């Protein structure tokens, strides 16, 4: 299709050039009358010639026609008199005659006082240089500008805007195999069947089985959805057509649908192959009633995709893979059997998966003997594959800045802190009073966490400013992966969040703005306990509707209409306030009993700025041995809260 359109374009260019050359030769040529050379000599002798241009084969002259009726034959005179082109005066006309060998011509022109000059007759080369070459340059510039403006579609002209922008990869171009994908073993197992079908389709057809037409890969950002799709193509060894969902829609109506058709046509020509549509939600959002009649450009493109998925035969070996992190907004017609009928969820990896991912990304990095990737994996709960790759890269950059020959464990810990809390800002100037407030605030978080049996174990405390607003942070590590939380565990976490605010109250009798993020998180947790988890005795085992969020993106949808009464809303507010108040009372009691430990930990922070786990253990052990100390068993989830 692209070759045919390119050929037609050059046909039109050649036709335009030919028309311009003909216009120059016939229509733009001055209107003149041809007369015999003898008549020209007669007019010259009679003094009627005013100017002359002597060429190699012709003589162009300008004559005065007054009185020429007595010098020329009647037919020639009338032809000259009827000439439409006028010169400097109505009596002057242009004539042309064939030149003959006449040695006396120059002297006769001088004797008659005629202005004359010589000229070289135009040839095909001069015509080419004068017309064709400038036109060719203009056409080349026009084609280049159109290619830049249209993103390189086809010839870059309007005839190419309906073509797909899919990038075609072959096996060696993807460069990704299943061995390069770690931490998502269940998702890999789901897609191995697709690879087996592309490698050996007769194995499934022999028993009458049909491979799914489409496989939808869903997961949070950075979990490896696109990487997994490329690995499928690399394992199967088939062409890989990759395109983003947003590239289907342009400013021209109907272009998106045309690109969908062109993409599937390319796939049928290269079968067996894989079509991969990244960010499917940009194209497949659920159709709704719009203000212009309910059929906008995006819906037309989606309709064309649905038709194409119904029309092509998957038995030819064309498999459609798509990835999205917002499956809840996709059109139901896309998800029915016969289209994207297999869904593969790519979840955030657990601690073993994170360790495997770290090993994959650390293959090309020089690691020191003290590096333990299992410890790094334990310190990064909730991290996706892209986050872990970023940690390895940041650690390598940090080691290079320090002039080290290998990446050490300290570099990895610094990279974790940078990803969690932001860039360290040791140059930020804080007055001693503010620094002391931050030290007591973070000490309160740490001591409450160590005093609660269900809280996560404290790993490190820092009062070095990081990021934009974090003046300090307390890092906690979970002892194990958790997927369910009990009410007692939530209450302990609520206490830890309020530890910093209560410590400020006890020490200064006043509070600061540093607990803003802690209070927001505590309020959200209490609200979820009441409205979503049914953990209120007054309200009972009831949940209440809340603005829904995506399964993988924390992007709230449109707020829903409240489905409960004002009295119930008042009870919800009272229960939330009760949970916060009771937590505040518990934390106040805990820190009051450990006031000496709080003072000691704050002084240690002011001295060292960073207190790690061994230093915290030593301080707590010394506090237990003192008569006023009140030790509690330690606990352990990585949190980084602003001071």
**At the third CATH level, what is the topology name of the largest domain?**
Methane Monooxygenase Hydroxylase, Chain G, domain 1
Strand count: 14
Cα separation of the termini: 63 Å
Helix content: 40-55%
Uncertain ranges: 149-159, 289-294, 628-643
The biggest beta sheet is recorded as: 6 strands, mixed
Structural class: alpha/beta
CATH architecture of the largest domain: Up-down Bundle
Shape from CA axes? elongated
CATH class of the largest domain: Mainly Alpha
What count of structural domains? 5
**Can you give the mean pLDDT?**
78
> How many alpha or pi helices?
22
Strand content: 5-15%
Question: What does the model show?
Answer:
This protein is of the alpha/beta class. It has 5 domains: 2-24 and 125-160, no CATH class; 31-121, 2-Layer Sandwich (Signal recognition particle alu RNA binding heterodimer, srp9/1), CATH 3.30.720; 167-346, P-loop containing nucleotide triphosphate hydrolases (Rossmann fold, 3-Layer(aba) Sandwich); 351-421, Helicase, Ruva Protein, domain 3 (Orthogonal Bundle), CATH 1.10.8.60; 432-625, Up-down Bundle (Methane Monooxygenase Hydroxylase, Chain G, domain 1), CATH 1.20.58. Helices cover 48% and strands 12% of the residues. The strands form 3 sheets. A 6-stranded mixed sheet has the order 6-8-9-10-7-11. A 5-stranded mixed sheet has the order 1-4-3-2-5, with helices on one face. Strands 13-12-14 form a 3-stranded antiparallel sheet. A hairpin with a 3-residue loop joins β2 (49-54) and β3. α13 packs across α15. Residues 149-159, 289-294 and 628-643 have low confidence and may be disordered.
């Amino acid at each position: 299709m692209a070759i045919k359109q390119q050929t037609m374009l050059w046909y039109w260019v050649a036709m335009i050039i030919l028309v311009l050359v003909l216009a120059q030769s016939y229509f733009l040529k001055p209107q003149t009358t041809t007369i015999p050379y003898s008549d020209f000599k007669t007019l010259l002798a009679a003094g009627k010639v005013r100017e002359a241009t002597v060429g190699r084969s012709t003589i162009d002259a300008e004559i005065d026609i007054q009185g020429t009726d007595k010098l020329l034959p009647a037919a020639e005179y009338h032809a000259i008199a009827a000439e439409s082109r006028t010169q400097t005066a109505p009596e002057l006309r242009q004539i042309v005659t064939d030149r003959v060998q006449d040695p006396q011509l120059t002297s006769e022109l001088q004797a008659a006082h005629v202005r004359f000059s010589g000229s070289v007759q135009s040839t095909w080369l001069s015509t080419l240089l004068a017309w064709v070459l400038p036109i060719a340059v203009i056409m080349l510039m026009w084609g280049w500008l159109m290619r830049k403006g249209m993103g390189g579609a086809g010839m870059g002209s309007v005839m190419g805007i309906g073509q797909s922008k899919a990038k075609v990869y072959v096996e060696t171009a993807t460069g990704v195999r299943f061995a390069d994908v770690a931490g998502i073993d269940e998702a890999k197992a789901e897609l191995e069947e697709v690879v087996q079908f592309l490698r050996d389709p007769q194995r499934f057809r022999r028993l009458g089985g049909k491979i799914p037409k489409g496989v939808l890969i869903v997961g949070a950002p950075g979990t490896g959805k696109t990487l997994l799709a490329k690995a499928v193509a690399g394992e199967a060894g088939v062409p890989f057509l990759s395109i983003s969902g947003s590239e289907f829609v342009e400013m021209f109506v109907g272009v998106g649908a045309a690109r969908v058709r062109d993409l599937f046509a390319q796939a049928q020509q290269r079968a067996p192959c894989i079509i991969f549509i990244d960010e499917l939600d940009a194209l497949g959002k659920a159709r709704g009633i719009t203000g212009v009649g309910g059929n906008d450009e995006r819906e037309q493109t989606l309709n064309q995709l649905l038709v194409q998925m119904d029309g092509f035969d998957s038995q030819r070996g064309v498999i459609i893979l798509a990835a999205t992190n917002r499956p809840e907004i996709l059109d139901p017609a896309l998800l029915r059997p016969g289209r994207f009928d297999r869904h593969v969820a790519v979840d955030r990896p657990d601690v073993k998966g994170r360790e495997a991912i770290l090993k994959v990304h650390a293959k090309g990095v020089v690691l020191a003997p003290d590096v333990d990737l299992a410890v790094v994996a334990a310190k990064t709960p909730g991290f996706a594959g892209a986050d872990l790759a970023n940690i390895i890269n940041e650690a390598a950059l940090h080691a290079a800045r320090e002039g080290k020959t290998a990446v050490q464990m300290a570099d990895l810990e610094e990279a974790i802190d940078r990803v969690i809390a932001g860039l360290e800002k040791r140059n930020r100037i804080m007055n001693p009073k503010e620094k002391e407030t931050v030290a007591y605030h973070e000490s309160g978080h740490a001591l409450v966490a160590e005093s609660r049996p269900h809280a996560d174990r404290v790993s490190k405390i820092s009062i070095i400013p990081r990021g934009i607003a974090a003046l300090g942070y307390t890092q906690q590590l979970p002892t194990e992966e958790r997927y369910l939380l009990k009410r007692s565990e939530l209450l302990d976490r609520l206490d830890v969040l309020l530890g910093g605010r209560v410590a400020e109250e006890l020490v200064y009798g006043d509070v600061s703005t540093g607990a803003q993020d802690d209070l927001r998180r505590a309020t959200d947790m209490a609200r979820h306990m009441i409205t979503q988890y049914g953990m209120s005795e007054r309200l009972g085992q009831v949940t209440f509707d809340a603005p829904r969020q995506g399964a993988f993106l924390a992007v709230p949808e449109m707020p829903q209409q409240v489905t409960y009464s004002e009295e119930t809303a008042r009870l919800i507010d009272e229960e939330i306030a009760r949970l916060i108040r009771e937590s505040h009372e518990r934390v106040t009691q805990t820190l009051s009993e450990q006031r000496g430990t709080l003072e000691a930990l704050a002084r240690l922070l002011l001295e060292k700025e960073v207190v790690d786990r061994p230093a915290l253990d030593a301080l707590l052990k010394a506090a237990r041995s003192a008569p006023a100390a009140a030790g509690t068993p330690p606990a352990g989830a990585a949190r980084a809260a602003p001071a």
